[in-house]
């Protein structure tokens, strides 16, 4: 650990071998976490602080967390379930994005260049200002909408279906 940053690496010199590593990191409550991963999945659960998670080649999944979320995958799906942060942003260049907040957020943003985007919002609590579009795919919005709402939802896919509905 140096300057508040824990760096984990895997060195593999094998030519015809499959190098595999799995890291599990537990941090004290109240610790904001940033993860930048080159190859592999990133999972986080139970946080009440901001999370900034990125994987170049792998999925990103967050569950049961309450802080602001910035989630990103270059090649893989992005999922957030049972999250209650006020600001939830998720993006995948090549993969689906699925967000299921457990509480009404001020900002929910789900974007995929190539993949389905699905946002399942809490039914109770608010109408939403929804911006949903797809260049190549169907768009299905089935939540109460109000362009003046302070609860903003952006759901966009260049190539894939976009769904915004209640989580019933």
From TrEMBL:
Look up the domain of life of the source: Bacteria
Q: Domain DUF4097 spans what residues?
A: 33-164
Question: What protein name is recorded for this chain?
Answer: DUF4097 family beta strand repeat-containing protein
